[in-house]
Amino acid sequence: MTIHILGSGSATPTVTRNPTAQLLEVSGRYFLIDCGESCQISLLRKKIPLLKINHIFISHLHGDHWLGLPGLISSMHLAGRKLPLKLFCPAGMEQILQTIFSHSETQLQFEIEFSFHHPTEKKVIWENADLEIFSFPLAHRIPCHGFLFNEKKRLRNIRREAIEVYNIPVEELINLKLGKDWLHPDGRIIDNRLLTKDPKPSSSYAYCSDTEFAPHLASYFPEVSVLYHEATFTEELIERAKLTYHSTAYQAAEIAYLAGAKKLLIGHFSSRYKDLNPFLLESQKKFANTCLVFDGFSLDF
Amino acid sequence: MTIHILGSGSATPTVTRNPTAQLLEVSGRYFLIDCGESCQISLLRKKIPLLKINHIFISHLHGDHWLGLPGLISSMHLAGRKLPLKLFCPAGMEQILQTIFSHSETQLQFEIEFSFHHPTEKKVIWENADLEIFSFPLAHRIPCHGFLFNEKKRLRNIRREAIEVYNIPVEELINLKLGKDWLHPDGRIIDNRLLTKDPKPSSSYAYCSDTEFAPHLASYFPEVSVLYHEATFTEELIERAKLTYHSTAYQAAEIAYLAGAKKLLIGHFSSRYKDLNPFLLESQKKFANTCLVFDGFSLDF
What we know:
The structure is a homodimer. Chain A is α/β, with parallel strands linked by helices. The first copy, chain A, has 9 helices and 18 strands. Chain A has a 7-stranded mixed β-sheet. Chain A has a 7-stranded mixed β-sheet with strand order 7-8-9-14-15-16-17, covered by helices on one side. In chain A, α8 runs parallel beside α9. The first copy, chain A, is globular, with a radius of gyration of 22 Å. The interface between A and B is large, with 36 and 37 residues.
């Protein structure tokens, strides 16, 4: 997986921090997570072909998380897109887009397949052989959802040389890949670890923005490889965080700690902060493996 | 007057050309003309305080001319704006903003005073002692309007030394400023030009985007100081220009020529063009005083 941060700001953008947008790359597929204003420009800067994005996930209907979407859809239309676009979003998104495109008299040449978030439960919203994607409710001023991208457990890798030594028939290989031992015709049991190697470990990515501090969220993404959690404020402004249903850097770290995450990314910084080091120091007090994100930041994991 | 170009691109933005937005500064007032996506970021870059913008003019409801507006309004709200905001726009803009802000549960702390364009006539839409602003219909795929900003004719400047020589009473000065001669108590008529100096010439700015080539437009802004006219294509793509209700650089120049404009600015370049010199060369064949605009361009006049 590779996560690209297209916007690391919050409600009010700054000259260096666009509103929220992220792109998750998994085995050549592009998943766009939120789409704040200027998102399509950031995609151009990253040289991501717009038409390779087939799945878009919108957390909630505050403008700083979706106002780049109508422009992006319009650019896809003008670029000749024909393939359907899957849009995972709150139900109101459909009415908003219909209103906008009816006034511009735009007849999109492709279909938008809407899928609306379940209000209260963690749900699988998309999957294929390698990946499953969940949405789960966050705790914000208006309905808001996080997302979990989970690579499915990979099959074990066959040791070709061992297969030849034991002369194992092809139809048995799937059982070996699934981790089973092999019963030799002479009665011996051959340990699977002699016949296969560990697969590349599976990765997972959880996205939590926007939300107030809510410890139960950690149960939605146990032992996640990388957690992105919003950190709009530092602890000095914890009252403001409560009032606006946002989190502090320390609270983001607590969620990462509770979830047993391997790494924490924090972003969605309020425009009032110029120096972001206090966010990092605060978060690392509770969770050492924290990383601040910025516009243009990318991470492979 | 000073015009600041915040976005010089057309429907599909590029990494160097944002969608259309311009800011006209007249004697310390800021008039925002169209508000494409990323407009508020461009305003931040230009260090224009958002709260000093009290008048916004939206030409039409294609997204590349207004998608920056909800974010800008939201940032004004978060910055504590209380003053009403005047919005000159197509009627549909009100429904769009209501839909967007109802889904985000945003209760703006200030009023938006909507003023909808007259569909077919040139109309004064705002004025004060120094300036009058007109809207006029353009010729585009959907209803679209241009704007003319006209500084009113200034009063003549009194020559203090002449006033003393002739001992002219204070209450007569307004007549002199209006250009009248003075009748001396001894019966002589004193030529106004001996008593006053020419005022600074008045400036005017006309904005035409988006529109197909329509020669009658020139009559809306005779002898304008600076005309901005869209030039989405060069003449090679004149058929595409017709089909999409846009203009070529040469057609923009023809309008400037017909209007007797003093200077022509062209922009709204299609994203297919990397090199813009052909636009300039084409326009200058008909109208020598043409200037290409770019994001960040400013001109005093």
